[in-house]
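Ticket 4471: requesting a sanity check on a complex prediction with iron/sulfur cluster. Repro inputs:
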Amino acid sequence: MTQSPYRPFIPNPEQMALLPAVSGNTINGMGETQFRRPARVYWHDPDTIAHGELQKWFYTQDPDNEAINHARAARSKVLAIEVPAVTGEPLQQPVEEWSRQLAAYANTLDLELFGITAFKPEWGYDGVVLDYKWAIMLGFAHDYEQMKSAPEATAGAEVVRQYGRATKAAKDIATWIRQRGWDAAPHAGPLAGPLLMIPPALECGFGILGKHGSIISKDYGSSFRLACVLTNTPLAPTPYQADYDVDDFCRRCQVCANACPPEAILPKKVSVRGKNKWYVDFDKCIPFFNEHFGCAICITVCPWSIPGRGVRIVEQLKRRAQRLNA
Ligand code: SF4
Ligand code: SF4
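Returned structure tokens:
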């Protein structure tokens, strides 16, 4: 069993001095058995969250790193792109035509995953009012060769690069919709925006939640980023895409848990705001994450993230299920 070479991890005391009194797990609702909407914990305006000083500290690490700075400079150009205001009367056409045209347009963009699902207000952060019918979800695969070095800067820079791609595509789709007379709100990381993105991506069937708390896609493993466009444009949901399950696999696999330096990945599902799910201990994860360019070890070592492996695992799981049923 391969243990992390980064253990034992002793967090920088300077960072630990910035920890707020409240646990991030408490903010996230770990152990709570009743539903409530999510509260902001990280990647929001730092002056509005308990862990804001910690979030600011992340950006003080290795400020002269060339790979990271190069990626951030490229992304800042995308962040500066303005999405035009809504123009003209709202285009009226059948839902099927809207959906077909939007999917065709998305197909011309630089992205890997596309899906549409009905928006649920429960995905919005506590206190946020989002009056939208549809969440258009987008996925952007990392370059695995760049991610293999996680938690080194090469991987951190690749994450920044994919957030740039995500921002560009989300803005392109929002622009396309607004030019047809309908409002559309693009959201892409690293800042979290007004809603959780994993639940709508799961609804689209981009994958299944894994033990490391990230989505496992058959085609891209957990090595991808998400973006979202909210709109009221008349649309239809895309067919659910995931035809496999990872729960049984994750129960038998320990790869991410063994590789996580601060041992933040819980061995069993827990109730989080009324839902039983895999969960990562925020308080243990975030100090290592902050000191290592966003870490990304768990999503990179996951066997499903190795290019081509997920499709083969799905076939193995099917054969296993057939044997057990025989
Ligand atoms: S991102 Fe967090 S949970 Fe994942 S390996 Fe790094 S420290 Fe562990
Ligand atoms: S590394 Fe293994 S246990 Fe962790 S999420 Fe991936 S498949 Fe599941």
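Notes from triage: The mean pLDDT is 96. Leaving this open until the requester confirms.
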